[in-house]
Each structure stands twice: as structure tokens, then as C-alpha cells.
Amino acid sequence: MEGILIRGIGSFYTAVDAEGGAFTLRCPKKFRFQGMTPMVGDRVRFTPGQGEEEGWVDEIFPRRSVFVRPPVANTEALLITLCPEPAPDFLLADRLLVECRRQGIRAILVATKEDLDGGELARTLRRDYAKADAAVISVCAGTGAGLDELRDAMGGDICCLAGQSGVGKSTLLAALTGLDLEVGEISRKIARGKNTTRRAELLMTGGLRVFDTAGFSLLVLSGLEEPESLPAYYPEFWPMAEGCRFQPCLHATEPGCLVRRAVETGDISRARHDRYLTLLGEMREAWERRYH
Q1: Tens digit of pLDDT for each residue in 216-255?
Q2: What is the fold of 227-288?
Q3: Are 204 and 176 in contact (CB under 8 A)?
Q4: What is the distance of C-alpha 218 from the center of its chain?
């Protein structure tokens, strides 16, 4: 049979098939020898158990995307969540957008707690990210404003919420799904406090498929790439990049750079370009130290 892993506790996994049937499975040691560990979100082929016996995972299908913390596979849409208080971490949002572009994940910028600023954060996001190929949706979990628009944007994709602590990811998740996740939030806090393995679960309700995780705030970009690769993750740079005097152009200090000219004229957000230069500096440093 084929299904998707929605939960993993210890050495036991729960898979759900296309008809919604749930099966408890174990993973044979062969995967450990192959360096593979099942992750929530994995699409698998499995043999169901007989009677009270657990079944077995037979095959883990290739993953379209992977996040290590939290350990989830096959995310199709990332809800990058920001709010007025605490102050929005736009650099974190940019890191997440780069990771989405790198892994082929659809990005949605979600401005939460719109009641605190009358939607000003959402307007800032729409201005600065107008050409970044990411939808911007303003919501308020308390009043329900914007939730229907966000549910429609999520569609049937496997989604994951990400963002700094305190932006209300758990509250938003509960409002979207209608599920009481208070116990899960307590468990997540305990897990973080004890520095244990973070658990994840794929919630499937009301046509939504969304990960409930212990928290997701990407601090560093995954993998090691040449700094020259970074501009390719910024869609607003693409129309001008081919016209730059130097190829490749890092859009940093090079003369004749059309991207920098677009920043000067306001066609590209200066704040977003400044944060791009920060990420570029980090990539340069990591690249120079790759053999150390």
C-alpha cells in the first residue's frame, strides 16, 4: 500500500492512505544502513500489519523538499509569519524566502495580529516584496480576519508555518484548523526546554494539510553554495541582471549594475537589497572558510 507519514513517536510511525485509513508501522534497519530516517510528510510504500501487529515501511519515495529542524519532508508551501510585536524579523523572512526558492517551495508572507497596527505591516510587506514572487496575506486569529483568504491560498498543499518566536504561529494554526492544540503547545515547550528531539505531526482537516511542529525559525541557510548563486534566489533582480556590465554580477559594488540602479530609483526595495548584502556577506565568509 502507499500513504503518507503523519506522525512518528519513537520507532513507531503512523501512515494514512488515500482513503484516510491509519496504519501503525515500524521501520526496518535497512534504512538506517542507507542513512535514511523516516520523516513526517514522507510518502511511503508499506505493508500493513496483521491483527495487533504493526506493519512495516517498505520504501520511502524521493523527497521534494527537506527541513532538518523541524524534521519534515515534502513541504509544498511555507507560511512565513511576521507580526507587529515583537518587531518583525525581515532578515529571517528573507532567509526563508531564499530557502523556499532553493527547494522549490511556494512562499506566503503572513502578517498576523493585524489588529495591533491596522494592517501597516501587511502594507510594508506588499511594498518591499512586490516583485519577490510571494503572496502577502494579512490575518488576525482573534477576529478571524483574513483566515478564509489564507485557507484558500494554502489549498491542498502540505504547508508549514515558520517565523520568529512570539508571532503567534500556534494560535494561527489553531484558528486555521479549528483544533484545540493547547496540549500540543505545552508539549512543544517541554520538548524545547529539555532539548529533546522535536516532534512534528501532519494535521489533515477541513481540506488543509499543515504541519504542527515544535517551532520553525531558520537561523542559517542550509547547504554551502558559491556566493554567485544568491542573486538567482531574488526574482526582483532577474529582469535587470542580464543587463549588468559584469557577468556574473553580485549586485554589491560592481559598476554598471542595473540592480543597484533599480534600488536607487526605488524599483527595488532598498531595505530588501541591504538585507541581501548581509546574506551575501555571510555566504562569502562561509565559502572562504569551507576548507577550514
Answers
A1: 776 666 667 899 999 999 999 999 999 999 999 999 999 9
A2: Ribonucleotide Reductase Protein R1; domain 1 (1.10.40)
A3: no
A4: 8
